[in-house]
Fold this sequence. Notes:
mainly alpha; two-stranded antiparallel ribbon; 9 helices; elongated
Amino acid sequence: CVRESGRPRFPTALPSTPTTKLRPAPSTIDVYIDMSRRARSAPKVNVSPSVRLGLESIVEGNETAIRAMLSLGSDKVVVEGLIDCMGVNSLSAEMLIANYFSASMLGAYCRERIGKSDKGGAATLAERIAREWAKPSFAPLPAPADSKKRKEPQPPVEDAAAKRAAALAEVAAKRAKQAAQKQASSPTAPAAEPKEKEVVGQREKEEEVVGQRE
């Protein structure tokens, strides 16, 4: 403001502030469209043959879990889906398996397919696996024969209850048998009573005979 004649002079009008328009929150459909656009526009990741072989080996036996994890359709190759995920999110192979795979799955892969220790968390196991995949001469061990077997069904509840009851009955029978054997091996008080009565009776007879003689 400028002072004129001792009075402050204020501007007649304040400058207008620009107003910002709020955009509505994106819907679920918008999110999926954005993800699909990113997948189409993302550059294709060039992986080395050893890394591709490693991805193929870790998919073997875990295809169903990985397909569900990435929400892949049945027509999409799982290995290609993993490579696309690397391109969309700018991930290396190590970061991919560390962020998307469980420690139990990575531990089993280390133990069965690359012959390494299965100890450690997901980040440690992913680093161990990526180090092997980076070798040009990488070759995974053959998959175990039972890797593709389904989990055996659990026995019905009634069968389990029947087995439990039979086991309890067997334990009770064994305890009863042991108690009977222990009782048979130990001397019993009632068996000694007849002998004591017999001795007392003989003494009484002897006293009667002596009294008659007198």
